[in-house]
Amino acid sequence: MSSLLILLVFNCAGQTSTPVMDEAKQLRDHVKANYTKYEYQIPMRDGIKIFTSVYVPKDDSKTYPFMLNRTPYSVAPYGVDNYREKLGPSTYFQKSGYIFVYQDVRGRWMSEGTFQNVRPHNPKKGPKDFDESTDTFDSIEWLLKNVKGHNGRVGQSGISYPGFNTAAGMIDAHPALKACSPQAPVIDWFVGDDFHHNGCLFLPHAFNFMSGFGKERPEPTRKGARVSHDHETPDGYQFFLDMGPLANADKKFLKGGVSFWNEMMKRGTYDDLWQAMNLRPHLKNIKPAVMTVGGWFDAENLFGALECYNSTEKQSPGCDNTLVMGPWDHGGWSRGAGDSLGNARFNSKTAEYFRQNIELPFFEFHLKDIPSLKQPEAHVFETGTNVWRKYDAWPPKDSNPLSLFFQEKGTLTSKPDLSEGFDSYISDPSKPVPYMERITTKMDYEYMVADQRHAARRPDVLVYQSPELKSDITLAGPIKVDLWVSTTGTDADWVVKVIDVFPNDYPDFDPNPAGVRMGNYQMLIRGEPFRGKFRNSFSKPEPFEPNKPTKVSFTMPDICHTFRPGHKLMVQVHSTWFPLVDRNPQKFCDIYSALESDFSIQTHKIHRSPEMQSGITVKVK
To answer: Are 371 and 364 contacting, i.e. CB atoms less than 8 angstroms apart?
Structure first.
């Protein structure tokens, strides 16, 4: 029997759809029944036209606010007869009633003009000068004049790149823009977002994303070229190891087809390009209400969410500025239940709670005057205890610093080490520490909560662990790292990970189809790399003097996690984290143009003495 005949037999038997397909059809039918779609080319101040889809409620007995989403990822489907499956940040918005506006940003898909990655904000614009702020302003002005049935108010929301567009759009905002929610926004592409963390390149993320997204679009089109590279193997560790030095990425695979990749490879320091992309200095005098949203386990833009909130808070004192952080991966609050991530369990539907009880009320209050419970300054989910917390400041005002020091025999205590000593390991770039046990070619989102036992057992990973905890200890805020290091080379990366070690008798999941054993599970809570040559400046790298103890300090993004009684707090330190982070040759050089011969085995030391205390400082609630 042919496969086609088998399919027909099953369809005749009534097996025509799945619950997921039925739900999608019901949502799309609801959109068609309640909204009319329009398409416009909205002129900007320089004459370029931006493609915009607008969905207007059919019920004209009342007026509605606009809900704007500006994206480089396409407003598809195109054509006034082709409708999106659902509208709004969530279906709650669709059912409540808004005028939904989706816009291809300048130079992407059906919009005219030239696209620029993370287009820099221009604070000194002439009449025809533009940036994402002016394109947002001009779009709102046109919508107010040309779309009927609105109440004169606009909200804007977006995740990731559209989160950047939202953050940029609230700068010098149109007076009608009343509420903005930058969600996982790109804020600084060198220091902490997406492709770079503290000067280290997040290799699979940058390569996979740019191999599709970075391809040129010579003219407006409904068909995209966002097809990522075919690795021809499921083994990303081996693929990127075989790639060799970073210069081979273009030589072997991209072959000049991704201009931004080549631009990035010319700019291995925090130069004028990256600094111009930094949105933080411009988040001042913000007028709309702002609710920044992020995920504690967002592998892409955790940094961006925290820095968007912090910068707005510091530079816009009169702004209604709030922060929401949940136990999510990138955009995880917008989909699914949010009750788990990988092997981490959160025991409630955190994403559904956010969409219904936090996100919708924020916009309903500011755009429709619908009363809602007063939102706290910071609405954050505390992992470990798995409970939502409300604070009037972030980090909490009553959190206090606690230093935890590395000690001999791999112990971690609050007492400084009074002995003279060091811990050492040999770092071999040809045998880097895997960032996950799972075989994958991508930056797997689940690495943010993944088991670290595979790393702890390697000789090139240092492990420091507290005694078994007798009571809860809640860490709420950023983590400061202070390392006294030395190396036989002239450069090195330093990867620091904060880990929750579960008790030996921690129960396995039920059901447990993957057969994961949770006893002694080492759950990553926060991990960050730091490229040592940037220890004093991201713009002016400096070599290490071989064998000379040198201080390396940096700050890891915030956490809100409770280590429970019976658990242990662990810190791991190592110098490779592959292929998540590109390999450091361990020789002071321009790594983006390094040769295979530049890579060498080196010995690194973490020093422990009264004058050279290595460890971390956390904020304890």
So the answer is: no
